Amino acid sequence: MQKRVTRYYSVDPGDPDALGAYAVVRPDPDLDEYRWEYYETGEPVGRGALFETVAEALLDAARDWEDAGEGAAPGDSLSRRLRAAAELRGKGEL
Fold first, then answer.
1. Per-residue pLDDT reduced to its tens digit, 68-94
2. Three-state SS at 83
3. First and final CA of the chain: distance in angstroms?
4. 7 phi and psi angles, rounded to 5 deg
5. CB 24 within 8 A of CB 39
6. How many CA atoms lie within 13 A of 55 on its CB side?
7. For the chain, which terminal residue's Cβ has fewer other Cβ atoms within 10 angstroms, N or C?
8. 6 Cβ partners below 8 Å, 6+ apart?
């Protein structure tokens, strides 16, 4: 059974249900593999590839948001938060 391993990183941090949110999940509890999922109204509507670390999955989520073209730019607040979380995870601080 799949398990969410990060908090939700919302498009609008003040409203988790605003436009959508990313979270990293572990699809199989027996494997050390992680991927991001994108949620709208609490339901997953997109997912990324499998990665060996949570940090890699968070970086891929940031790239996905930037590539989505929904007004997102590399300096976008959501992109920055996802990249910062990836950096902290990589250092073992989150």
1. 865 555 556 888 889 999 999 888 776
2. helix
3. 23
4. -75, 175
5. no
6. 10
7. N
8. 23, 24, 54, 58, 85
Q: Which residue has the tokens 């300096």?
A: 75
Give CA torsion, residues 77, 81, 87, 91, to 10 deg: 150
Tokens 């950096």 sit on residue: 87
Number of compact structural domains in the chain = 1
How many Å apart are CA 40 and CA 32, to the nearest integer?
Answer: 26
According to DSSP, the residues that pair with 21 across neighbouring strands are 10, 39
Tokens 């959508």 sit at which residue? Answer: 20
Which stretches does DSSP call E strand in 5-91? Answer: 9-10, 21-26, 35-40, 43-47
Domain that holds residue 51: 3-91
- Record the pTM: 0.85
Q: Which two tokens stand for residue 1?
A: 């059974």
